[in-house]
Write the structure tokens for this entry.
Amino acid sequence: MAHFINPFTDFGFKKIFGEEISKDLLISFLNELLRGEKEIEDITFLNGEKLPELPDSRSVIYDIFCVTNTGEQIIVEMQYKRQANFKERSLYYVAKAIAAQGVKGPAWQFDVKTVYGVFFMNFTFDKAQRGYCYHDEPTADNMLSTSIKEGKMRTDVILADRDTGELFNGKLRQIFLELPYFNKKETECESNFERWIYVLKNMENLERMPFKAQDAVFKRLEDIGNLLTLDSDQRRQYDNSLDNFRDNAATMAYAESVAREEGMEKGMEKGMEKGMEQGLEKGMEKGLEQGMEKGKSTATYQIAKSLKSLHTNTETIATVTGLSVEEIDKL
């Protein structure tokens, strides 16, 4: 029986990070995420829906949208399902928040405040997308799997000079957290940031809340995330959110399975076609070696027939198969 909410559900994620009563948890996590860069003292939650300025434009709804006490805006998103153009979507989200700061009239001199986009991802970009294939992601039933290959869990994106790497403009920041790459055990977590990631990734399956001795924030997380603290209405909302989460996970797993099977079938068909083509062009060298060892077997004659049907000249067939011209002419 689960003791804690699943933070990958819409309800769970917003319960932990998106409510005024628990904003100290978000502040704690963000300070660990940005340790050595900035210290956030307070945040104010903003309306997460950004309506379009033009009738045909698209609105944006952020999971969590807040502003710090020093004016920086922070978007926090939990993305469980892989999406086409996810990088582009995340860029659009951050750019939308930057553009929304514009003020009409000549008095505004583009005093843009920094916008951070923090994206929790329960899938991973592959090397090409770093083009757009993904490693397999955990389903609801194997969330603790450590079969994902080692990779870079955190990616920080900044605007920098391509040649020198020097920061050009710090007003746009994106931080991608590819959770399947994090496979540390409880005893291997060395920092509060790693402890946060460990708990969030494994929370639904924990029997107890770890790390309370290291930082009181995990005691707060235990209280906020405890299923027993939910009232009947909250429990109903959570159960509905959890059902949607599991349905999505099952649908994704099935779609991936079908895609893999279809991909394998098409790959085998193409591979066989290409292999036959290459084999015929090369005289099916491997088959011929075996055929030559056994003599002029039925297989050798079949190869000769195949080559002959492709209008290969007799001399080439003879060279490839070892048959005489007379034997080939009789086929």
